[in-house]
Amino acid sequence: MIYLDHLLKATQGTLRQASKHVHFQAFNHDTRQISPHEIFVAVRGERGNGHDHVLDAVRKGATGLLLSGQTFQQFSEQTKSVLANEEITIVLVEDTRRALQQYASAILEIWHPTVIAVTGSVGKTSTKEAIATVLSRQFTTFRSWQNYNDMLGIPLSLGRLEARHEYAVLELGCDHPGEIAALSRVVRPQIGVLTNISPVQLQYFSSLEHLAFELGTLLTSLPEGGQFFYNQEDPIIRALLEQRVHHAPSTVSCHPFLPAGYAVDEQPGVTVRWDGIQGTIKRRHTSGELERGEDEQVTVQLRSQLLGEHQFTTMLAAYQIGLSRGIYPSLVEQALTTLKPLPGRLNPLPGIRQSVLLDDTHNAAPASVKAGLQTLSALAGERSQRIAILGDMLHLGDTEAEAHRAIGREISQYVDYLITRGEWATLIAEEARQAGMDNERIIMTSTHEDAAQAARRILNTLPESDGCAVILIKGSEEIRMERVTELLMARPWEASELLVRQTPGWKKTIFRHAERPTWVEIDLNAIGSNTRHIASMVGPRTRVLVALKADAYGHGALKVARTVLQNGASMLGVATVSEAIPLRDAHITAPILVFGYVPRWQMREALRLGVSVTIYSREEAQALSQAAQALDKTVRVHVKVDTGMGRLGVRFEELPTIIELVREASQLPGLELEGIYTHFAQADAEDQSHVRMQLERFQGVLQQLEEEGLRPPIVHAANSAATLSLPEARFDMVRPGIAIYGLEPSPFVRLPEGFRPALAFKTQVSQVKWIPAGEGISYGSTYITPRPTLIAVLPVGYADGFRRSPQNWGSVLIHGQEASLLGRVCMDQCMVDVTHIPQVRMGDEVVLIGRQGEATLTAEEVANRLGTVNYEVVSELLARVPRVD
């Protein structure tokens, strides 16, 4: 509960608008999940500004606003007028983040609960919850909300603190140096708890030692008389204590999680069961404590519904702190039995086909992944198949690659099947393969849907019985692996209650971490869906080859390849041998056809890669045969016939030559005749006469080959346009390209309903400023401002594929409105007119291709402005523009 007078006094804020609302249920900084009677805090973040959403907060029931005074003065008169007519309390401060911290410190001082701060690399939230659960048996206890644990989250959480709370158990996180000290200054803990130290957030710490130093700051931040509890099984913590204990106040006492006089009973030790874990500790009496005839030891059974042997230290921490607070041991033990897995933390859920999902999707680090795998193996035992679906582990700095490979080297001892989702996670798969795991049991995917579908296929091969498989699902927060869990749940309608990140705000949040403020977003789910549409359209007897030329038309060939192969494609097409190399290096084993010219000096590389080669002359066939014999390999070939494209291929009129080439390709040593094909020049035209002429010519060639008994196994001709509009051209295989990416083949051949674009091109506003009338804009001053003009500078230019001339993009979308380009596009920047959009600020998102609000700027519209086709627009987006999905 937040009282207005406390807030004003703590922050030295100004009451800008009074109302009947003088107390509030909580702070909230996200209008997507705000509840009535909360006070909305407008926070400026790295990618947005909460002040842009104050009216939305009011509409959704906020009864108070905590705003920056400076920003409030910049509100439009219309916005101020709307606020003035609302029954809402408005408090203005210099900085809203700082105000929250001031309030947190003040309210802890006013109500002075005993503050227990929990930190560590992993397990903080579970430990916080366990300690709070134990203390609640005897004391009124506050616990920080969910995993709100940073300089914004802790103060937001403390808005729920009340005067009745005797203890406040707070989780402290850190992702950069100095954060634990700063948090400690805000909350001033009397008791500190350090769970463990392992590699996390190393992108901002140069080493694990520096991370340990940071976490150890909690010890030195404790006051005189403070208590510090630590995991005595962690060697890094033990070394840390030796170094830092002398820097703590002399009266701070240090206590291991295992209470003094207690020891873990090694027989039977810690056991993991379907209903949780249990472990035995024994208290050894000290000399003089026993009377004759008494037992020398007291056995204590610690049980909980938590899963994973590593959770025993969580129970020990809560047990030790409970005893230190004077709670009777039996009450502590009873409290521990009520502990249940938190959402996303090794939480067992019913899965499809009687499987059990071990949902561990809250986050991922090497230590927690290892713990999850051990728990998976222990729970599955010998009766169930063990399946791990692992996403990327992020924020590990320079150790990211080795951390994933280390998991891969050991994973075969824990799992029967491995499914990965994401690019870093492929390193787990690669290392598992090198360590000897069966390649048929390793599946690499790039989307949640494909990962779930891979698991479904595995389950379909298993006998359906209780616990036929246990499936561990885990990945870093940004990878959102809870979406995989939801797709595999037996009762998916329970997802909102059982999974992490299910609030409206989280549901709409998509992490986009680009390397620069200009980026391309790729919707791989759209590519998968479009592929399924094509496969359904052509039927099961017709194969689908997806064209990946030009880095999959600018969409990223590797991720697209994995996605289409999981969704109905069985073959891939590239323009050159070099385009096949990264696919094979990434262990893409599907057949690949090289459409273009393969010179003699590259034939051996083609053989090494195992790709199919296009041939159109006897000389090529003979050269390939020689290369194949030299390497003792076989190469598959496709004969190409030119039926009217005027490009590569044997002319259809040279029928004897075609027949001889086909015959020779089927007989030469080292060659395997796999296919024959042609390519249409006008399949996307309104007038279909040319494409039908080409089709007739090709059918004539095929008829002659059939009469000679030489028809190859795979006949193909249809590109996207022909696949959609000319069913008789589908033959044995189709070769869609542009349609897979959700782009129209032409104005005359449109995509059917259900296809959707996969690519969006975006940037951010880098500066906003007024330019006086009569001033020139950009190189050559080709545009002179006719009036005072508000311009936005954008960090995108022709070196990104944002065309300069002879025509340029024309306009972009900002705040859902078109903003016209002014002057010449520079190599790395351009300027747009936003005079009619005065609310534009630095950092605002700009859409160059895609949707923003109700407005859309498609690749087709851009192509019309540039005088080209959508193929060129997306393919010309340069590699320096990062792709995110």
From TrEMBL:
Pathway: Cell wall biogenesis; peptidoglycan biosynthesis; Amino-acid biosynthesis; D-alanine biosynthesis; D-alanine from L-alanine: step 1/1
GO molecular function, one term: UDP-N-acetylmuramoylalanyl-D-glutamyl-2,6-diaminopimelate-D-alanyl-D-alanine ligase activity
Record domain Alanine racemase C-terminal: where: 758-885
Enzyme Commission designation: 6.3.2.10, 5.1.1.1
Cofactor(s) the record lists: pyridoxal 5'-phosphate
Keywords tagged on the record: ATP-binding, Cell cycle, Cell division, Cell shape, Cell wall biogenesis/degradation, Cytoplasm, Isomerase, Ligase, Nucleotide-binding, Peptidoglycan synthesis, Pyridoxal phosphate
SUPFAM superfamilies per UniProt: Alanine racemase C-terminal domain-like (SSF50621), MurD-like peptide ligases, catalytic domain (SSF53623), MurD-like peptide ligases, peptide-binding domain (SSF53244), MurE/MurF N-terminal domain (SSF63418), PLP-binding barrel (SSF51419)
Localization of this protein: Cytoplasm
Active site: residue positions: 549 (proton acceptor), 779 (proton acceptor)
One Gene Ontology cellular component: cytosol
Residues where N6-(pyridoxal phosphate)lysine is found: 549
Gene Ontology biological process: cell division; cell wall organization; D-alanine biosynthetic process; peptidoglycan biosynthetic process; regulation of cell shape
Binding site for substrate: 647, 827
Known catalytic reactions: L-alanine = D-alanine; D-alanyl-D-alanine + UDP-N-acetyl-alpha-D-muramoyl-L-alanyl-gamma-D-glutamyl-meso-2,6-diaminopimelate + ATP = UDP-N-acetyl-alpha-D-muramoyl-L-alanyl-gamma-D-glutamyl-meso-2,6-diaminopimeloyl-D-alanyl-D-alanine + ADP + phosphate + H(+)
Primary localization class, coarse: cytoplasm
Family under the similarity heading: Belongs to the MurCDEF family. MurF subfamily.
Protein role: Catalyzes the interconversion of L-alanine and D-alanine. May also act on other amino acids. Involved in cell wall formation. Catalyzes the final step in the synthesis of UDP-N-acetylmuramoyl-pentapeptide, the precursor of murein.
HAMAP family listed in its UniProt record: Ala_racemase, MurF
PANTHER family named in the record: ALANINE RACEMASE (PTHR30511), ALANINE RACEMASE, CATABOLIC-RELATED (PTHR30511:SF0)
Protein name in UniProt: Multifunctional fusion protein
Organism: Dictyobacter aurantiacus
Name of the coding gene: murF
